[in-house]
Amino acid sequence: MTTAAFTPPFISPAELPAALRDQGYAVLSPQGVAEWLGLPVAQLEALHADWNDLPPDDYLKDGGRYRTRRHACFTVEADEQATLAQVPHRAHWQPVEYNALHGGMQRWFAPMLDATIAQPVWKRLLQQLGKASSEMRGAAQRWYVEAHQFRIDTAGGIGRPTPEGAHRDGVDLVAVALVGRHGIKGGETRVFEANGRRGERFTMTEPWTLLLLDDARVIHESTPIQPLEEGGEGWRDTLVITCRAEGFQGD
What is a single molecular function from GO for this protein (predicted)? Predict the structure, then answer.
């Protein structure tokens, strides 16, 4: 496995709408994320401790035990305040057309912690993603938001951030934030045109680097991770948030 790391193609927050419109994806640096949110990165970093206590993902059909996670769902309204509301805990569901490995099944993951959801930076992040989704689609509307906290570890020798391979999620906007990584190699992010030949590869190494994707236009994946040292253990923490205009999948 190569250890080369290509630098993400960072843009400024002001360029975000055009980047999503013109190429279907955009990457903000941690400093860019702070500017976009109007809050310091330290407030985001304060969330990271939650990733140390994520319950196992019991639905991995490849037999792996390398993934732990939590899940929560919200709505973001189209009003001027981008009003955010959490909805009752629900299963995560995707059709097999978008997730050939885990699609077609109701997956009840442990809920996110109330203390996380109560943080002002959490509310601000989801509101901004709702606004970005409306800008991308050219119309303000209600967004149905799913949030996933992931830790992928190498305790078994290898961890797979996207065991389903290169995929789309069946939503409008996908946001992938690197929360942290430790003692690993791999975990390269790859983005490809859904209906073309163009693609880009890079490695997110700085905590709170943020990738935003127009799910209708691009497919994405992250390559497997391995420990830097034989017999060692490492992990990669991410936050994945999706915004969908037509209700939650599975309704």
Answer: dioxygenase activity
